[in-house]
Amino acid sequence: MKQVSNLRLLFTSTRNPFNLSFSCSASSASHLLFRPKTLLKPRPLFIAAASSSSSSSGRRVPPQKGNVRKFGDFRGKDRVLGMEDVLVPAADGNVGFNKRRAEGRDKGKPKALQLKTRKLNPVNTICYVQILGTGMDTQDTSPSVFLFFDKQRFIFNAGEGLQRFCTEHKIKLSKIDHMFLTRVCSETAGGLPGLLLTLAAMGEEGMTVNIWGPSDLKYLVDAMRSFIPNAAMVYSHSFGGSPNADGDASPNKSSDTIVLIDDEVVKISAFLLRPSYSEADVSYSSSVRLDGNMNPLSENIESAGQKLKPGDISVVYICELPEIKGKFDPGKAVALGLRPGPKYRDLQLGKSVLSDHYDITVHPGDVLGPSSPGPIVLLVDCPTQFHFKELLSIQALDNYYTDPSDHPREGLKLVNCVIHLGPASVTKNADYVKWMKKFGSAQHIMAGHEMKNTTVPILKSSARIAARLNYLCPQLFPSSGFPSIPAINRCSLSSIASSEEPSNIYSESICAENLLKFHLRPYAQLGLDRSGIPGLKTPKDIINELLAEIPEIPDASKHVSQFWQAKQATPQMDENAILIEEPWMHDTSCTPNATDASKDCFVPDCLKNISREDLEIVLLGTGSSQPSKYRNVSSIYVNLFAKGSILLDCGEGTLAQLKRRFGIEGADEAVKSLKCIWISHIHADHHAGLVRILALRCKLLKGIPHDPLLVVGPRQLKRFLDAYSRLEDLDMQFLDCRHTVADSNNGDGNFFVRDERMQSIWKRPGSPVDMTLLTTLKDMLEEAGLEELVSVPVVHCPQAFGVVIQASERINNLGETVPGWKLVYSGDTRPCQALIDASHGATVLIHEATFEDGMGDEALARNHSTTKEAIGVGESAGAYRIILTHFSQRYPKIPVFEEDHMHDTCIAFDMMSVNAADLPVLPEVLPYLTLLFRNEMLVDEPDDAAVAAAYS
């Protein structure tokens, strides 16, 4: 990056305290652009059809060359930027940016990558299954199950938050060979796109992985190819046939055994579970779950015999390890004429050898003691009572049931562990408990939702930070990071046992905990292992540590509270009283262009006498690229209270963050209140959590009159949503960001389009403006008390936008008309004039600040902004308050910045909730936040350039 260091510029302007003047509009940049030598066509991203299906019982479904779906068989490799890559600034000092990246031409040449295979180790010394408890405290995703061998790794389900959880606990997902989905939906697969992006960017050629799932898997893969870059390398295998257009499923029956993997390490088989409806089920569909919510599938039951929908099919997986060979007897080997050496190992591996001294063949049975059957683990995902009927009808499972007569029978297989992924509304049912008893002494692990550990935070590191922030400033950080779940959701023996038939089955059952293991090998350790379960610290424990670490923190907390106490001390006038404003509100020296000292006293008219029920900005995710221990990826919840809410970007884990901020029920209400979701660009860290939010809202509002949710985003996003809607009902309508640009008559809506030299690159056929959708947007804005929502083209990647939200005028208690507040969010961008112009006079500018000031080269290469550049944008625009966000994950807790530049700026943290009424005091809190992290060493965590490029 040293070659472009001379492109980091200083600018001249009296409006900017840093003498920065940004001029990146198309009209002013036309003479700066390089004319491309050739018109580059977009490189194709393809997925070859793959459907490894099985129609007969016991048929193996191996990977095959002809039917394997290759997901993006090449990856782009970053290279050092040359002069042709960057918009070279002219003499008037325009800002530089990576032109190739902005055009979407920063990918390398395609590579014909091959599926990597690991050398198998048939004699595995260690093997276990482990609960990766994503979703347990927020109940937003299905937990994952990790099957570990010496040389191979398998994972079942990849809900949102999986990668973040594994990062915290140092579980290397890079060694995953196979991934299995028990259902194909956002609950079980929401974390898959982010995981694939990470795997694809690792190493020189990226990692490869096999993904297995029922026939609906093809819908998911088809949807993901619209935004997963060419770096991803995925081989997907669907089984059970393909649903047709009417929703009818394949010829496979639930009783058919589908063998997916069968090698010397493990045999993994699958049974399909389809919901079975009858007239009796109609009454059941209105039953109430233990937590007070309706049955999960009740909204789908309108009449008996309803056709299947994609995502309704569930899977039971059976993992069988090879038999455990008997103990090797060296004495017998010597007696048969064998010398110690390699032949001993061959016999232990089940191979026959020739005697060294006699003309005989020695067989394994000659020197080994009696063999023991290999351990068996079942993973049962029975999401509804309708699936349970099919579960009972699987005859192939009879071989795994213990004979109650205790008489051994031929073909009987002893199950050691059963992991139940279904909800407690199913697993606590008396009939389900009776079915569990068929497995005899097997260890049952109840990993579904509503278990006792729902009060335990999954992400302990971020919960610790949240608790400390909450202690220092509860006004900005109302969430302590520790959920409070109603006791009714806890696993209780009394609620499980049948009143008609008392059962002690749960003497062999436990509630799953994060990182709980069940050892399968070595045989001497067969059984549960709780040693890896993280210890739990209460908020009180965390605060006691904080007080010991920073003795000044109690005084700091008191000082912070005084800011709000001073505000509350201001006399409150009733509607008939004459409002007496402070003298400084009318002091002509208190203007945005005054000195820094006098500027601090200025309060814009839109904030005077503003209600606390007017606007709250909740920063749900403040990190970039990929989720980390302390920061989730981009998402901002704009709470308009009684008038609804808006989401700006929706990275993976957004739903979980909402539940951590508002609680389980509060998050449901927040999702139902959404008026619009706006997406800045088509990078996964900004939209990978979208379908989870849409699918949940659809279910929450089922049977309640409502309008489809309006999603505003770049046109590539529509392709993803249209493809994914075949899998789950998203109940939304899409509006292209181009049609919400202030001057939407410029064709593509991108700032480059105004320049004739770039027309050939940026001009793309686009859909005509749907006036109905624009009317919908107008009506939504009016209901929400907003005047406009305008997208602003910015400099990052093709079709990248910022957004301006302007509130309508309001009437204060004196009957005066007061201007509405103005909120601007930059998305990802280099500093650009278009955003500065749009941000003029903003009440709040939320601007990305991915890199510290010393990393201008990296910011230029990635088309991101440094801290100083972001502040410069806000200062140039005359923004009242600037909130910096989207920090590189190399800054795990707090980014690097110069406090001298932060007089009207604040650093964002996850779960930070900024009420519009608190904006005047916002910058005053920043020094105390730095105090909180003064002993936190800056950890330069791995921020691999390729991984960052894949995400952002």
From TrEMBL:
BP GO terms, sorted: mitochondrial tRNA 3'-end processing
SUPFAM superfamilies according to UniProt: Metallo-hydrolase/oxidoreductase
EC assignment: 3.1.26.11
Family annotation (Gene3D superfamilies): Ribonuclease Z/Hydroxyacylglutathione hydrolase-like
Keywords: Calcium, Endonuclease, Hydrolase, Magnesium, Manganese, Metal-binding, Mitochondrion, Nuclease, Transit peptide, tRNA processing, Zinc
Cell inner membrane in keyword set: no
Reactions catalysed: Endonucleolytic cleavage of RNA, removing extra 3' nucleotides from tRNA precursor, generating 3' termini of tRNAs. A 3'-hydroxy group is left at the tRNA terminus and a 5'-phosphoryl group is left at the trailer molecule
Chief subcellular location: mitochondrion
tRNase Z endonuclease domain boundaries: 135-191
GO terms of molecular function: 3'-tRNA processing endoribonuclease activity; metal ion binding
Protein localization: Mitochondrion
One Pfam family in the UniProt entry: Lactamase_B_4
Gene Ontology, cellular component aspect: mitochondrion
InterPro entries listed in its UniProt record: RibonucZ/Hydroxyglut_hydro, RNase_Z/BN, RNZ2-like, tRNase_Z_dom
Cofactor or coenzyme needed: Mg(2+); Zn(2+); Mn(2+)
Entry's family note: Belongs to the RNase Z family.
HAMAP family reported for this sequence: RNase_Z_BN
Assembly and oligomerization: Homodimer.
Protein's UniProt name: ribonuclease Z
Lineage: Eukaryota, Viridiplantae, Streptophyta, Embryophyta, Tracheophyta
